[in-house]
Design goal:
Length: 347
């Protein structure tokens, strides 16, 4: 059987639709993997996601809508049902590619189909007990920085984004932009401080993940002009925001796992100013596509140097490293290696 004739199941989460209407990083990546493989000529790609998901692959769903979009659901009930129903079909596939964290791993003793897990981050140290318990499987990291030293990774595959949704513009806007979860981890309060010190307008877009944090650190600074909060942004709104952007501020307070926003910003030609934590230096090329900074003072200084960045270099970096096509190509190589190892194991 040719490699691209193999039957691959892509397991997406069900918090949101795939692709998400606004927020949903893991759903975005799972959908992009499916789309990228179909574009490369794979004939038997099945995406397990919510029933209202949109894909060129074969779609199978057991949950009508994402539980974050339908609050009548209990999230864990939908999660467990989706995973268990998906893995009832494991024998129909040559490989299961999970983008659903640690829980599907606990089914490995009951299925014969090999599983590849893309680890999108460790939400809590205790979940490492599950990952470390199932070392006789296949793991991919989304950055070299976001790895556990005890796990047997097969590769690092950077997330890829759909460039057709992001318009490259050579002419910069005049506003600073923050895109992401409204949570201490992502540092929108630091973006506000930088904007105020630079005397530039700031647009904040994203879901409020911590209402107390928003009320205490973001809301008091909002007004109708210089500091605006517009809520979640769908792909069309996001593209329009990048048109207004002079630079994107990504001043995360914890190590970044990958950072889709950084890649999306650069794809639109918008330089990114990021705190040098985690994967940021793998995604942003310092002084070429943005600036790696350690503190607020350096971030303020970086805003004053943004004009030195060639916006075409920003787009080029994404095309070469973080495109949907590049991600699909790398996963194709990973699948080939898995099938080689499986053939050797069962010889």
């Amino acid at each position: 059987m040719e490699l691209r004739d193999k039957r691959i199941a892509i397991l997406a989460p069900v918090a949101w639709r795939t692709p998400p209407r606004a927020y949903g990083a893991w759903e975005t990546v799972a959908g992009n993997i499916a789309e990228g493989l179909v574009a490369r000529g794979w004939k038997n790609i099945t995406l397990f996601a919510t029933k209202d998901s949109v894909t060129r692959a074969r779609l199978v769903g057991f949950i009508d809508r994402g539980y974050e979009e339908d609050r009548t659901q209990i999230g864990w009930v939908s999660t467990c049902l989706h995973i268990s129903k998906t893995l009832e079909h494991a024998g129909e596939f040559d490989l299961i590619h999970s983008n659903f964290d640690y829980l599907p791993l606990t089914y490995l003793p009951f299925i014969k189909t090999p599983m590849l897990t893309t680890i999108h981050g460790f939400s809590h140290p205790d979940i490492l007990r599950v990952y470390r318990n199932y070392k006789d499987t296949y793991y991919v990291s989304i950055s070299d920085a976001d790895r556990d030293p005890e796990l047997p990774y097969i590769a690092t595959v950077y997330n890829g984004i759909d460039l057709s949704n992001l318009t490259f513009r050579e002419r910069p806007g005049d506003k600073l932009l923050f895109l992401g979860r409204i949570h201490l981890d992502k540092g929108p309060h630091l973006a506000i401080e930088v904007a105020q010190r630079c005397g530039r307008d700031l647009i904040i877009a994203g879901i409020i993940q911590d209402q107390q944090y928003f009320d205490a650190f973001i809301k008091p600074h909002l007004n109708d002009s210089s500091i605006q909060f517009i809520g979640p942004a769908d792909p069309v709104q996001r593209d329009a925001l990048f048109q207004q952007a002079y630079a994107t501020l990504h001043l995360n307070t914890i190590p970044e796992r990958f950072g889709l926003v950084m890649a999306e910003s650069m794809a639109a030609g918008v330089p990114v100013i990021v705190r040098d934590l985690g994967s940021c230096r793998e995604v942003v090329q310092d002084r070429v596509t943005g600036y790696l900074v350690r503190n607020i003072d350096e971030a303020v200084a970086a805003v004053g140097q943004v004009e030195r960045i060639d916006r075409r270099d920003c787009r080029r970096r994404v095309e070469e490293n973080f495109s949907l096509a590049r991600m699909a190509e790398r996963y194709e190589q990973v699948y080939e290696e898995i099938f080689r190892r499986e053939a050797t194991r069962h010889a």
